[in-house]
Amino acid sequence: MNLELIRAVAHMREFVAGARLQGRTIGCVPTMGALHAGHGALMDRARSECGSVVATIFVNPIQFDRPDDYERYARTLDADLVYSEARGVDVVFAPSAAEMYPEPSATFVEVPELARHLCGEFRPGHFRGVATVVAKLFNIIQPDAAYFGEKDAQQLAIIEQMARDLNFPVRIVPVPTVREPDGLALSSRNQRLTPEERRVAPALFQALSRARELIAAGERNPQVVKRVAADLLSRQAAMRLEYLEIVDPRSMQPVDRISGPVRVAAAVWLGTTRLIDNVIAQAS
Ligand code: PAF
Question: Quick check: is 39 catalytic?
Fold first, then answer.
């Protein structure tokens, strides 16, 4: 295997110093593992732009609002290493929780305004955990560029803001959502769906697409768009809507009127699995 697996922060720093001495740029792809083609798209983009590609695989305990979700999160390191190597990754950084959070660990990063709505409203502490671990990864790996999927649009907005505010010298690169042929956004959580839940799951993207069509056709009232999309979702008895919101793509605040580009974002539950998705919609 050409790919190097690094577990220790000190060892990761040595790799970074070596790459810098050789004049190589570093691209970072932060993940929690259970890799799929969505992560593959991030890795491909990093590979095409950077001299060295570091993927991180760390199921970050402090971003889970429910202990059962943390316990159940798929951990597939062996398969992930094979996948990463096939996508041209040079290093997988997979630290233990103790390595990332040596006791006592008491510093957190928060971007409260951007975390106020959408997932932030329903997952207390989630984005604080995400911003904290990403800030730590940026400090350890010091990447020139870091790659994040647009499926997690609120996470992406928070990380962009954090990188600006804290002067991280890193380019944040958004990568479009990768979808199944029926529209379902790829997610590590999809593998938890039962066959019946999997059949119903594309309704989420269909509802968001309908919202996008309405906006493109000239609807300016977010309440009307939300009602139509929520009605579509309510036809799926197995699906429970957590939120459906239309927000400004940069501030992540709900809009009163649709006048420029907006993000339509939703979270639903199918059984015990929570799915999120979003689309950009443009007022014509
Ligand atoms: O999107 C994810 O997989 C995680 O939230 C991230 C960015 C790797 C931080 O743990």
Answer: yes
Task: With cut-offs at 50, 70 and 90, classify the pLDDT of residue 208.
Answer: very high
Per-residue pLDDT, 114: 98
Could you give the percent of the chain with pLDDT greater than 70? 100
Structure confidence at residue 168 (pLDDT): 98
Instruction: Find the 70 Cα to ligand 1 centroid distance in Å.
Output: 13
pLDDT band at 191 (very low <50, low <70, confident <90, very high): very high
Q: What is the pTM of this model?
A: 0.97
Cβ count within 10 A of residue 5: 14
- In this structure, the residue with its CA closest to atom 1 of ligand 1 is 31
Between the CA of 57 and the centroid of ligand 1 the distance, in Å, is 9
**Residue found by looking up tokens 């954090």 in the block:** 162
* Nearest residue to 108 (alpha-carbon basis) of 80, 92, 127: 127
Query: For ligand 1, is residue 150 a contact (CB within 6 Å)?
Result: no
63 ligand 1 Cβ < 6 A:
yes
d(CA 161, CA 143): 17
Residue 48: count other Cβ atoms within 10 Å of its Cβ.
Answer: 10
Q: Is the CB of 30 under 6 A from ligand 1?
A: yes
Provide the 3-class DSSP secondary structure of residue 91.
strand
- Beta strands 171-175 and 145-149: pairing type? parallel
Q: How far is CA 94 from CA 3, 6, 37, 73, in A?
A: 13, 6, 19, 15
For the Cβ of 131 lying below 6 angstroms from any atom of ligand 1, the answer is: no
